[in-house]
């Protein structure tokens, strides 16, 4: 069956993705409801009850909104850093008055790889305004997947992790001009544009043109803003940045969407 990646939902209204090997199935973030997660997995021929584990990037609501219900229902381990867990538990307690059950929690630390079934998971620190945000690389059956959204810029340490990946899922959050001219209050615009905010099409393009090693067969643009970006604009910026490399190496650029499941990439 091989390794596959699909994005169930991507954007500020909820993020969730699936990384699978022949024997292991990991949900990356749980930012859509339990019901919606079941529905979207079913639409690509998967049963959510077959998940092996859930891994969490950070505690922002668009990444954990469905976590409590999903973890209770599926009773699968949730891999999360200590600081992210604390921040998440606090927000659950404030909203519901109860602390989440910690029986299924497995702690990891950024910079320390761990194994879930036959998938090696390598978490690394990213610059974002959350307690302890991480990106991941996943490795199984000789395939390597880089996964990074929700970050203000791409420091060299993150670029290093994104080398030699067969699939890259990367944030392409906003078009700078659209954000500047858009409806957000100035304080929010500043937050989004800051070094711990979100990655613009322009900053992603800079990475693709300059630091990216050209190794991925698929580059997936993710966490697009619905207010301050347009799929065509993000796609054009990435394709232009890849330039000649795209045709030489047959990199395909795909879009992860908020309201539709991305058909699985099979490797
Ligand atoms: Zn987010
Ligand atoms: Zn975030």
Describe this structure in words.
There is one protein chain. This protein has helices at 34-43, 61-64, 67-74, 82-96, 156-161, 176-181, 186-193, 201-211, 231-249; strands at 4-9, 16-20, 25-28, 53-55, 78-80, 105-107, 114-116, 119-125, 134-140, 143-148, 167-171, 218-222, 252-255, 265-266. It is α/β, with parallel strands linked by helices. The strands form two sheets. The chain has a seven-stranded mixed sheet with strand order 6-5-4-3-2-1-14. α5 links the parallel β10 (143-148) and β11 (167-171). The structure holds zinc ion (ZN) (2 copies).
Question: In brief, what are we looking at here?
Answer:
With 267 residues, this protein is α/β, with parallel strands linked by helices.
> What's the number of helices?
9
Oligomer: single chain
Q: What strand line-up does the widest sheet have?
A: 6-5-4-3-2-1-14
User: How much beta, percentage-wise?
Assistant: 15-25%
SSE-based structural type: alpha/beta
Rg, alpha carbons: 17 Å
* Record field, number of beta strands: 14
Mean pLDDT rating: 95
Order of helices and strands: EEEHEHHEHEEEEEHEHHHEHEE
Bound molecules: zinc ion
Low-confidence stretches: none
What's the helix and strand layout?
Blueprint: E1 4-9, E2 16-20, E3 25-28, H1 34-43, E4 53-55, H2 61-64, H3 67-74, E5 78-80, H4 82-96, E6 105-107, E7 114-116, E8 119-125, E9 134-140, E10 143-148, H5 156-161, E11 167-171, H6 176-181, H7 186-193, H8 201-211, E12 218-222, H9 231-249, E13 252-255, E14 265-266
Helix pairs in contact: 8-9
